[in-house]
Design goal:
The complex is a heterodimer of chains A (about 110) and B (about 120).
Chain A lengths: L3 E4 L2 E5 L4 E7 L7 E6 L6 E6 L5 E4 L2 E6 L4 E6 L8 E7 L7 E2 L3 E6 L1
Parallel strand pairs in A: 2-11
Antiparallel strand pairs in A: 1-3, 3-8, 4-5, 4-9, 6-7, 7-8, 9-10, 9-11
Chain B lengths: L3 E4 L2 E4 L5 E7 L6 E7 L5 E8 L5 E2 L8 E7 L2 E6 L8 E8 L7 E3 L3 E5 L1
The chains are: A mainly beta (about 110), B mainly beta (about 120).
Chain lengths: ~110, ~120
């Protein structure tokens, strides 16, 4: 059973546009929701993370929106750049234990 | 910072041989380390969780005798793929957590294993 569902599977955005990736979860015990960015042949790198006590967190061009009642969270990349082209994974965990990863979104930003 | 390294980055071996992959936390002590496997264009699959000084906890379906994990110190965990076969070819990634009460996992750069 997929604990965290992620969509879309792939996304193509024009340079300067907004990239939006969505994730949904079922387990209300999850208390930590990170997003990771992965380039081909590399390990995932933490991008930004949020806890359920806030509805939004922004770091530079990256924003997480969190909807606790809907059990959904999303990553918004503003002013998308070709260098943002990568695979993005959302994840959820409880108490710092096992991470449950989404299936990943391949983002391509075209110039 | 929180840097995790893996060695080697790539390894090619013959079927039947054993391969050891090292995961090190370079600038922090990692109470818990995790080992993942990732197939092309797929998500990360947790293989096992290891705590320093104790036996690793393996996920369902992961053979403990085939994937030996040792977490001998707070900065080093090793994964040994024993008697490797072509179906073991994959991208293996480790991550490390700073300890109890902290959530963030820091990932290593991964090791590409190819078994001929």
């Amino acid at each position: 059973q997929q604990q965290v569902k992620q969509s879309p599977q792939s996304l193509i955005v024009q340079k300067g546009g907004i990239s939006i990736i969505n994730c949904a979860y079922e387990n209300t015990a999850f208390d930590y929701f990170p997003w990771y960015q992965q380039f081909p042949g590399k390990g995932p790198a933490l991008l930004i993370a949020i806890r359920p006590d806030v509805s939004e967190k922004k770091e530079g061009r990256f924003t997480i929106s969190f909807n606790k009642s809907a059990k959904q969270f999303s990553l918004h990349i503003m002013d998308s750049q070709p260098g943002d082209s990568a695979t993005y994974f959302c994840a959820a965990s409880m108490g710092g234990n096992q991470f449950y990863f989404g299936t990943g979104t391949s983002l391509t930003v075209i110039p | 910072g929180a840097v995790v390294s893996q060695h080697p980055s790539r390894v090619i071996c013959k079927s039947g041989t054993s391969v050891k992959i090292e995961c090190r936390s370079l600038d922090f002590q990692a109470t818990t380390m995790f080992w993942y496997r990732q197939f092309p264009k797929q998500s990360l699959m947790l293989m096992a969780t290891s705590n320093e000084g104790s036996k690793a906890t393996y996920e369902q379906g992961v053979e403990k005798d085939k994937f030996l994990i040792n977490h001998a110190s707070l900065t080093l965990s090793t994964l040994t793929v024993t008697s490797a076969h072509p179906e073991d070819s994959s991208f293996y990634i480790c991550s490390a957590s700073k300890g109890q009460g902290t959530d963030t996992q820091y990932f290593g750069p991964g090791t590409r294993l190819t078994v001929l």
